[in-house]
Design a protein that fits this description.
The chain is an alpha/beta fold. It has 9 helices and 10 strands. The chain binds adenosine-5'-triphosphate.
Length: 236
């Protein structure tokens, strides 16, 4: 049995009168990737935003390594060791690659040494070559790499990633998923929202399927009959 890093119980969340997250409970262990699947508009992004503190839950609990973070401010949650790579990547186009990476240091609790960028730049040579360029000069794939690299600067314990493969060429998608695996192998607990089901199943350990804000099916991503059932339910 692994060490539970993210523990969510009976989470509910609304946009006005719209009840978007309806009683979701899930756990993610250290060194595990949980895939979150479902059609457009079922609440996947809203679930991530609740965990990261961008949207407030109406009720329910969210614990990070045992500590209650439900309803806390995003920067406080970030300093507890939870980082999010949002769907729109949130790269600041007018800032250089280096400056965008330095923003990742805000996720550190104490001092924020720029030396923390060194191992990350070693891992991403294409970004290292471009540290002084404005981020706007990067390709879509490089911007996704930058978004991933930026969270790695602060060694997060829990990582939420929203549709990283969207709009990217297959070779870049493979690179991105290789990085997700590396983070998992380094001990991160990862929640991965993906529409690219076949690619995502190859990297996830477990998955949940969401329909109208509720988990309707879940299982082990390595179990062939379970995967088949998921693909049938999604009709892909
Ligand atoms: N800021 C908002 N205000 C009001 N309604 C919203 C807001 N953001 C999302 N919604 C609605 O909440 C529902 C869930 O949206 P969400 O983005 O979480 O779904 P999703 O499963 O991530 O879909 P997608 O794959 O299209 O991103 C949708 O009906 C959406 O229109």
């Amino acid at each position: 049995m692994g060490e539970t890093m993210l523990h969510i119980r009976d989470l509910n969340s609304h946009y006005g009168l719209s009840h978007v997250i309806q009683g979701i409970s899930l756990d993610v262990q250290k060194g595990e990737i949980l895939g979150v699947f479902g059609r457009n508009g079922v609440g996947k992004t809203t679930l991530l935003k609740n965990i990261a503190g961008w949207v407030k839950p109406s009720s329910g609990s969210i614990r990070l390594d045992g500590k209650d973070i439900g309803g806390s401010e995003p920067d406080a949650i970030n300093r507890e060791g939870l980082a999010i790579v949002p769907e729109d990547r949130r790269i600041f186009p007018g800032l250089t690659v280096q400056e965008n990476l330095e923003l990742g240091l805000l996720g550190l609790k104490g001092p924020k040494p720029v030396s923390k960028l060194d191992p990350v730049l070693e891992r991403f040579p294409r970004l290292a070559e471009r540290v002084r360029q404005p981020a706007t000069t990067l390709s879509g794939g490089e911007q996704q790499m930058l978004a991933m690299a930026r969270i790695m600067v602060a060694d997060p314990r829990v990582v939420l990633i929203d549709e990283p493969s969207e709009g990217l060429a297959p070779m870049i998608v493979a690179e991105i998923f290789a990085i997700v695996r590396e983070m998992r192998d380094a001990g991160c607990a990862i929640v991965l929202v993906e529409q690219n089901i076949h690619e995502a199943l190859a990297v996830c350990d477990r998955f949940v399927l969401i329909e109208r804000g509720t988990i309707v099916f879940e299982g082990d991503a390595e179990d062939e009959p379970t995967r088949e059932k998921l693909l049938q339910k999604l009709a892909v």
